[in-house]
Design goal:
Blueprint (H helix, E strand, L loop, with lengths): L5 E6 L3 H12 L4 E4 L6 H6 L1 H20 L13 H25 L3 E3 L3 E5 L2 E4 L4 E9 L3 E3 L13 H4 L8 E5 L3 H12 L3 E5 L11 H13 L3 E3 L6 E4 L5 E4 L5 E4 L1 E4 L3 E3 L32 E3 L10 H16 L13 E3 L5 E5 L2 H8 L2 E8 L13 E8 L5 E7 L3 H13 L4 H5 L17
Parallel strand pairs: 1-2, 1-6, 2-3, 6-16, 8-9, 8-14, 9-10
Antiparallel strand pairs: 4-5, 5-6, 7-15, 11-12, 12-13, 17-18, 18-21, 19-20, 20-21
Helix pairs in contact: 1-8, 3-4, 3-6
Bound molecules: NADPH dihydro-nicotinamide-adenine-dinucleotide phosphate (NDP).
The site of NADPH dihydro-nicotinamide-adenine-dinucleotide phosphate (NDP) has 24 residues, from helix 6 and strand 17.
Amino acid sequence: MSEFDYDLFVIGAGSGGVRAARISASHGARVAIAEEHRVGGTCVIRGCVPKKMLVYGSMFAEELGHAENYGWTVEGRSFDWPVLRDFVNRDVDRLEGLYGKTLQSHEVELLDERATIAGPNTVKLASGREVTARYILVAVGSWPMMPDFPGVEHCISSNEVFHLEEQPRCLMVVGGGYIAMEFAGIFNALGSEVTVVNRTDRVLRSYDDQIVERMLHIAMGRGIDFKMHSQIRSVEKTDDGCLMVDLGEANKRRVDQVLIATGRKPKTDGLGLENAGVKLGEKGEITVDEYNRTSCPSIYAVGDVTDRVQLTPVAIREGHAFADTVFGDNPRTVNYDYIPSAVFSQPPLAGVGLTEAEARREYGNVKVYSSDFRPMKNIFSPHAERGLYKMIVDETSEKILGIHMIGPESPEILQVAAVALKAGLTKQAFDDTVALHPSMAEELVLLK
Ligand code: NDP
């Protein structure tokens, strides 16, 4: 008989936790996983997946707008938010079910209650029961960070936006990051009046300046109003249920909803980490070594709660590496170089590797190749929006340092281009590749 109830107890059934639980179980470990909300975590329940479906839903507005130029008559065009919202949420339910089945088929015991840490090998469940485990994995993710101003309780975060009773006619989005740009794009396309309030004049800081500039130009052209160097002073609820937002300097705006998207913080509050001596960093994140081990040798952490790279595929890799290291007799670390990422704004933008500014700082001599083109898909569009692709190359070694793009389907194209960076290819490899014509991706092998 083992001295512990389980070999592994995972707290949090999101992307990282579920992967770690499943792989650990397949290595022969007795595993339990606790989830206080819904199996699937942020990505599946209130993040990447439902967001992308809303993007697809909203893109019909543009496609239907083009349709007449292609000979299609679309009569009685209208949009019904509850239909899209419920369709998306039904699919989230389906995916949650699939995640549950995966855990079940790997004989991972699922406990649908909150779990906190009571000691290095002890977990306390909300029901009051205490269980023991040889290892504990904390994979509780992150939570929206709400700024502190009077009336912030009237505002929503990305947690609530998927469940709105009605489509806001007038939406204010606060922040200039991923979530702000994506939801501004979605609701603008759906016909809401959208204002983005950002504290500086920079949005999407980690992306290439020129690509972001193009995104802003297009977004403004589509009617999104950007209030740069602005911050909310207060929000008041009016008698008719609207929100009166005070932006200072006698600038007041009446809107239906305010969506706060000012970053996410590790969800470590009240987790009992102090009971096991688990150290936290400045933002409340759990600090770990390259094998995801915390300052307590029996406790590990993966995903957003460690605040390394807040992206689902990274959490999944960390969870998998943890399981292989601890239960698979195969110590593995995650390589964080050249992680591709995208913002599903409209149009989307994507990037991998160094931006032009970063490359100039780090390498000095760099060459920038680009293509500024009008995608064939946009020929019939009233906007005449242009795509922009950039490749940053080290002049000495000719190695590609970064690829950045904005335009239709750019995340789909960039995923493949990221393989070239990971493989350490030079621009010559792209030049040597025959274009696939006509496509947008061919611009990548025709860069000048
Ligand atoms: P981000 O970190 O992307 O952006 C936060 C934004 O809020 C920045 O513009 C920041 O400004 C601003 N901000 C921060 N604090 C304040 C404040 N107190 N008042 C006003 N503005 C503030 O956060 P998101 O919430 O958009 O997303 C969280 C994370 O989720 C992302 O970092 C990303 O990792 C992940 N995500 C990924 C997606 C994807 O892969 N497509 C989609 C959605 C989320 P400043 O730049 O000045 O600091």
